[in-house]
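Subject — a protein and its fold
Fields — amino acid sequence, structure tokens
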Amino acid sequence: MRRALAAPLGHRLPSGSRRINRTVSSSSDALSGDPTRAAVASSVAGMVQASLLLPMNTVQTQMQTRGMSSRDVVRLLFRNGPISGLTNLYRAIAPTVGMLGARQGLKFGAGAVFKARLPPSWPEYARDACAGGLSALTSTTLLFPIDTLKTRWQMNMTSPRLDQMYQGFRPAASYSAFGMALWVMMRNALERNLPEPIGGSALAYWKHFLCGGLAGVAVQVPLRWGQG
């Protein structure tokens, strides 16, 4: 009898609804929630992203370093046939998946730890930017050798020597830290100011996708122009 009355009196939601609401609530802040959970989820997402987008990244790297058009790069990569071309596109798959999975996991896991330790009296945008920048700097420092290996493999070059592992580290660390600080600050600001979607908690996931994408475009476009 007590069990039968418990649900109406406590207004309990079904377990699936509670799970969705809890996830949506924690996702409104990119650096909130359990650091382990954030690290694992973002790491898996990073590995999926790396597997799907590596061909485009390989073509981009070739264009940037060789000064060639995308069409000429594709012709160069596939000059010995389709099997050879696919091999060239995915030559750096191992270091890329490992690096991006670890980098995303470190960024969001460490970012959640850093933000939780920052003074609550700070403005929210300052905590977002500081935690995001520190987490990106940490991940870049630890994983830059793998990034160097990935880039050299994409260019069909030999593996780097130990003294070459951190060549180019300063601009990469500055780019990563500044970019992540801006992204977290802008993404969370959009989350706080855009209205919640009408039609159920599941639609909130599309809001997270939109906020993250808009912030990414707003940050990456000027930074890429600055690099050029």
